[in-house]
Amino acid sequence: MTTKININKKLTAVAVSSLLSSQALAANIGNTEVSYGGYIKLDAIWSDFSDGTLGSQHIGRDFYVPGTTPVVPSTGEDAVFDMHARQSRFNFGTASKLDDGSTIKTKIELDFIASTGGNERVSNSYSPRIRQAFVTYKGWLFGQAWSNFQNVSALPETLDFVGPAEGTVFVRQAMAKYTIGNWSFSAENPESTVTTEGGERKVTDDAQMPDFTARYNYKADWGHFTVAALARQLTYKLGAADETESSYGISASGRVNFGKNNIKFMLTHGQGLGRYVGLNVAHGAVYDGKDLHAIDSTSGFIAYQHYWNSQWRSTFLYSYFSADNDTNLLNITGDPTDMTTSYSANILYSPVKKLTFGAEYKVANREVQSGAEGDLDRLQLSVKYAF
Question: For the residues of 131-170, what is the DSSP string, one character each?
Answer without folding.
Answer: EEEEEEETTEEEEEEE-TT--GGG----SSSSSSGGGSB-
